[in-house]
Specification:
- It is a single chain.
- By secondary structure, the protein is an alpha+beta fold.
- It has one domain: Cyclic phosphodiesterase (Cyclic Phosphodiesterase, Chain: A, Alpha-Beta Complex), CATH 3.90.1140.
- It contains 4 helices and 10 strands.
- The strands form 3 sheets. The chain has a 4-stranded antiparallel β-sheet, covered by helices on one side. A 4-stranded antiparallel β-sheet has the order 2-7-6-5, with no helix packed on it. It has a two-stranded antiparallel ribbon with strand order 4-8.
- The longest helix is centred in the middle third of the chain and has 16 residues.
- It is globular.
Length: 217
């Protein structure tokens, strides 16, 4: 159940951490979660938390959410499929920090990400300087065993999923806390049936009472 927006005129706005992502269907998440293991020093993302990030926004004043929502809802709902393909890492040498599953080149996905980027900019946020690289984070690494990591990459380099249907995306809020970040979907696009126009704010959120977590977006 969604909480109602606060009406306290004396309420102080909060800084919240946001990102936009494609949620993944259960069967795909289950298969990805099945890859976890065999790399000491890896902190694996739980199955329910796996997603493909389209735009990391970062810390923003919650009062800017309505402007962001107004721009995102203008995006025509997507209708395509993508294939997750290959396995790789971010970082080199002793600074390898992320294991990921990639996505096959997909023009429809690139167009959707570009529309989201444009919407975020129209809402008043700065452009993302980094080039978009479609991937699903499997694990965060710290002092991972190089030999075991090489073995994992070799063993999963030919990973390929069934086509994943894409009919929407979502805005998420992440909550930094003990053991990593927790996250919560706060709005689906297009808006789901029964949702009122506008994006509700959920004051007094307690990360300890929310299911799901992810290590970093």
């Amino acid at each position: 159940m969604r909480a109602e927006p606060t009406t306290d005129s004396h309420a102080v706005s909060q800084m919240i951490r946001l990102f936009i992502a494609l949620p993944l269907p259960f069967d795909i998440r289950a298969r990805l979660a099945g890859l976890a293991g065999g790399v000491p020093g890896a902190r694996w993302v739980e199955a329910e938390d796996l997603h493909l990030t389209l735009r990391f926004i970062g810390e923003v004043d919650e009062g800017r959410l309505p402007d962001l929502d107004a721009e995102l809802i203008r995006i025509e709902p997507p209708d395509f499929s993508l294939v997750l393909d290959g396995c790789g890492q971010f970082g080199t040498g002793r600074k390898i920090h992320t294991l990921w599953i990639g996505a096959e080149r997909n023009e429809a996905l690139s167009r959707l990400q570009a529309k989201i980027e444009a919407a975020v900019i129209r809402a008043g946020f700065p452009p993302e300087p980094r080039k978009f690289s479609a991937h699903v984070t499997l694990a965060r690494l710290k002092d991972a065993n190089p030999e075991r990591l090489t073995r994992f990459l070799a063993g999963n380099g030919l990973f390929r999923s069934a086509p994943v249907p894409v009919t929407g995306f979502a805005l998420y809020q992440s909550h930094l806390g003990h053991g990593g970040a927790r996250y919560q979907k706060i709005q689906a696009y297009p808006h789901e049936d029964g949702e009122e126009e506008g994006l509700p704010i959920m004051p007094g959120f307690d990360p300890e009472e929310t299911e799901g977590h992810l290590w970093k977006v």
